[in-house]
Amino acid sequence: MSRISLDQVKHVANLARLAITEEEAQLFAKNLDAIIGFAEQLNELDTTGVKPTTHVLDIKNVFREDEAKQGLPVEQVVKNAPDSKDGYIRVPSILE
């Protein structure tokens, strides 16, 4: 029995806005079923005592103190803007 149906494949293709033929849907169903089978093999492993991880490497964030610093002068910020007025960058209106 297949772990993924043709309807599920077509639904995912529709969500991804992909136009697939019936033959492609059957091929994808077969390939996705094989991928699910490989993933299910992980359930056979004994993971007792294995600490959950979010990354295979022991990576830690380097934090710094959050310090307020002087920003760029307004004139320098708006200098490269395509359109500005009174120290503000103007953008096209999206609301009517």
List keywords for this structure.
mainly alpha, 96 residues, single chain, 2 strands
The proportion of residues in beta strands is under 5%
Termini, distance in Å?
55 Å
Shape: flat
What kind of sheet is the major sheet?
2 strands, antiparallel
Decide which structural class fits the backbone: mainly alpha
Q: What topology, given as strand order, has the largest sheet?
A: 1-2
Can you write the helix and strand succession as a string? HHHEE
Kindly report the average pLDDT value.
Answer: 90
Helix content: 25-40%
Tell me the number of strands. Answer: 2
> How many H/I helical runs?
3
- Cα gyration radius (Å): 27 Å
Could you name the ranges where pLDDT drops below 50 across 5 or more consecutive residues?
none
In short:
With 96 residues, this protein is mainly α. Helix content is 36%, strand content 4%.
Question: Mind explaining what this structure looks like?
Answer:
The chain is mainly alpha-helical and 96 residues long. It is built from three helices and two strands; from the N terminus they run H-H-H-E-E. It has helices at residues 6-15, 22-40, 74-79; strands spanning 84-85, 88-89. It has a two-stranded antiparallel ribbon. A hairpin with a 2-residue loop joins strand 1 (84-85) and strand 2. Helix 1 (6-15) crosses helix 2 (22-40). It is flat.
